[in-house]
Amino acid sequence: MNNEKKLNKLILNKAVQLLAQRDHSSYELSQKITFFFANKQRCTDEEYHDLLAKLKTEIRDVIEHCINQNWINDEQYIEKYIVMRANKGYGKYKIAMELKQRGLSVDLTQQLLQMANIDWTNLAYEQLIKKLKQIDSKNNNKKQKGIQFLMTRGYTQDDIKTVYNLLT
């Protein structure tokens, strides 16, 4: 029992240390802590799997504690992430994909993207103008490059179509 408490305190300390550096989602924090402690274990393969299972249970408890303390809030994390990436010129699709890769709820992400007070079309327009300086909508090759650029940035077809309608 004493050993469990010690492990839990070590995990909690690591969680607090990571959260002091920057915001993390619950999934991201769990992954980092698991990786950190799993790499410190020196044991046979058989022992390692038992230790890892025990470790994951302990980490889950610590993550729950952090959520209850409001040190981790996935909804706020998503909201901040959306604004940060939109400010860097990325569209909804790209942001949604990045949040999914970070283990966050796809439904919550979609909901928060819809609620975000961001003019995605204007953002796409600014990115395109910055990228191509002067756009000749008659020049099909340049137009295709612009469309491709906005697609890789994660803008929707509707946003891209609207941007090109604004340009003509």
Automatic annotation (TrEMBL):
Any one cellular-component term (Gene Ontology): cytoplasm
Keyword entries, A-Z: Cytoplasm
Domain of life assignment: Bacteria
GO biological process, one term: regulation of DNA repair
Residue span, RecX second three-helical domain: 73-111
InterPro entries per the UniProt record, alphabetical: RecX_HTH_2nd, RecX_HTH_3rd, Regulatory_RecX, WH-like_DNA-bd_sf
Domain RecX third three-helical residues, every copy: 123-163
Localization of this protein: Cytoplasm
PANTHER family assigned to the protein according to its UniProt record, in alphabetical order: REGULATORY PROTEIN RECX FAMILY PROTEIN (PTHR33602:SF1)
Stated role: Modulates RecA activity.
Family statement drawn from the similarity comment of this UniProt entry: Belongs to the RecX family.
Name the record gives this protein: Regulatory protein RecX
Originating species: Gilliamella bombicola
